[in-house]
Amino acid sequence: MSVTTMRIDDRLIHGQIVTRWIADAQADTILIADDMAAGDATQQMLLKLVAPANINLLIKTINEAAQLLASSELDDKKVLLMLRNPATALALCNLGFHIDTINVGNISNARSETGRKKLLSFIFVEAQDVECLKALAAKGIHLDIRAVPNDKSIDAMELLKKY
């Protein structure tokens, strides 16, 4: 499989991705599967500015990403797959993509009208996030919470017992 790491992080590309996760994933390609980013030229420009020059950056809708991942086009690549939130990850998996482990990174408290419950300093969830994470786990996917690769892994299902 071409995807070496799949990560949920609402910031998509930022310092930790550039300095830690690309190397940990041994990635030569970042695939962002996100309808909002795929449809926003300004967001695409910003993501291209922060991506390292030696990394191939692809920004696709969820449907486009599912089709790309199902094809053989990325077979010779090592891909860091980035998603904005648990709902996006679940949507991609519901379209047929499967991976054994998803890294759950930053889920911020921003953009929430209903408020989010703080589980960790970088994980804030609301009911929809919890439902989507549980649905991913029900598909047999291990949900590994770590901010950076060398952090101790936290099992998301154990953490969600606090919700």
Automatic annotation (TrEMBL):
One of its GO terms (molecular function) is protein-N(PI)-phosphohistidine-sugar phosphotransferase activity. Residues 1-163 form the PTS EIIB type-4 domain. The keyword Membrane does not apply. PROSITE patterns: PTS_EIIB_TYPE_4. Keywords: Cytoplasm, Kinase, Phosphotransferase system, Sugar transport, Transferase, Transport. GO terms for biological process: phosphoenolpyruvate-dependent sugar phosphotransferase system. InterPro entries: PTS_IIB_sorbose-sp, PTS_IIB_sorbose-sp_sf. This is PTS EIIB type-4 domain-containing protein. SUPFAM superfamilies: PTS IIb component. The keyword Magnesium does not apply. It comes from [Clostridium] innocuum 2959. One of its GO terms (cellular component) is cytoplasm. It is found in: Cytoplasm. It comes from the Bacteria. Gene3D superfamilies: Phosphotransferase system, sorbose subfamily IIB component. The lineage of its organism: Bacteria, Bacillati, Bacillota, Clostridia, Eubacteriales. Pfam families: PTSIIB_sorb (PF03830).
